[in-house]
Amino acid sequence: MTAAQVAMANLCRHLSLAARATPTQLAVAVQHSRGGKLVYSEIDFAELDKRSDAIAFALNHAGIGKGRKAVLMVTPSLDFFALTFALFKAGIIPILVDPGMGIRNLKQCFAEAEPDVFIGIPKAHVARRLFAWGKPSVRHCIHVGGNWLSRGLTGAIGLDSLLAQAPETSEPYPMVMLPQDEMAAILFTSGSTGTPKGVVYSHGMFEAQIQVLKTDYGIRPGERDLATFPLFSLFGPALGMAAIVPEMDASKPITANPEFIFAAIEKYQCTNLFVNPALVERLGQALVAGDGAAAPAPRKLPSLRRVISAGAPATIASIARFANLLGARVPLLNSYGATESLPISMIASQELLTTSAITDAGGGICVGMPVSGVDIKIIGITEDVIGHWDEARVLAAGEIGEIVVRGPMVSQGYYRRDGASAAAKIADTGGGRLRHRMGDLGYLDQEGKLWMCGRKAHRVDAGRDGRLSKRYFSIPSERIFNTHGAVKRSALVGVRLAGEVTPLVCLELAQGLACNKGGALYAELRALAEQYPHTRGISRFLIHPEFPVDIRHNAKIFREKLALWAQSQLKE
After folding, report:
1. Stated pTM of the model
2. Could you tell me which residue ranges the AMP-dependent synthetase/ligase domain spans (predicted)?
3. Which residues pair with 73 in a beta bridge?
């Protein structure tokens, strides 16, 4: 990278380089299920680069230029890729939201971001009109796809019409280059662990993520990626890697049809697979089941060179099952991070499986070593704002505290959320970049590996009148009870009894099991708790029929809801 490119950046330069180097090579393939058959739409690098150029020119002709903000609610498709790259090329700021966050959260996100443009499928536009999404600020509406009837309900101009209105040109679009830290996109968190917040992304952050995917994950041009998450799929063309998009609801990956995913992997001989932990579990079960009675043997995915899992902690059992179906040297790479900073650390399945005894004993989940360029520190637990970094705050190896990270892919703030930025960021004059408080708890071992112990908000500080008697952490505590054969999963919450904060564990039982309150199971779990110092003192349990979990990962438990439910079940 030249000195000029270091100072100025645009994610799309990678696409343009790929279009020149391998113009006819596959860039994107999108799977569709039609009439019981799977069909695919494809585009090569040259055509993707050319179409995104044309859209960028058309947006400018319509009066939409650099610095404008555009909501993008388009399902993964060829147009999704072309539109996203067009926005980046033109310096227009995409606003990316998770449709699964709910109508109320979506309206709040649009109110905060104040978009100038709303680009979406007809369904999104109907919702926009019905719920007044972005009504005070949106001046341009563009619909993508749909039939003539649905398009007529949107009150928006079609993408094809927008392109037809722009003057024809064979010239490449003059890509807008931005300073490394200037806002390039706003990515809203899902809200599964709190209120959705708009994370400000710069092209410098994207560049850092691309570099890590090359160096730490070993992704090379010419590979083919089966991506189940739209944002990650955009990195494919930027890496010279084809993005293969399966037929599925990206906001609810757990509902994906495993056969569709396997078919796409086999058709394109995908070398990379990006999935969330819930999908790792589902695909692993489907692969082990084989094709039914006629073919009971487990299936294999021989083309894969790696599997990347991110989004939530995956269970060691599901990782072990899936890893057995890969080649002997093919890693399942578990990545730790968040929308604000991704990736932070990584561990391969082969190494993770060797840590299972520590995890089962309540030692937390190992999420590996920091990726290149990332510095991880652990500081004492506090709810206070920390204005300036002080090394004196750093805890020793093995001590549990809040995870704090610094690196080129770490966001520097939230959009129009000064309070949230102040709570999550720490100024570091020595490092030149802000440090980010992950809101997660964990520790570093003697080798520098990071171990996750749960969300800071999910710890239980037992005691009365603010006086701490004992602190319990979610992941270490819950893992002890999850080892019991009758327990599918557990969730630590705090309840108030006689004015004292008390730990209580909600239980979701294994399928087909039932247990009455006060039965033998509770006695066994109390005895189990007394065997470990970090669970000693936990003596209250409640069986819940089905835990409330986030829609995307089907793994993040809404402990706040469980805490309210548990409190309502108790009589002081």
Report:
1. 0.93
2. 40-415
3. 120
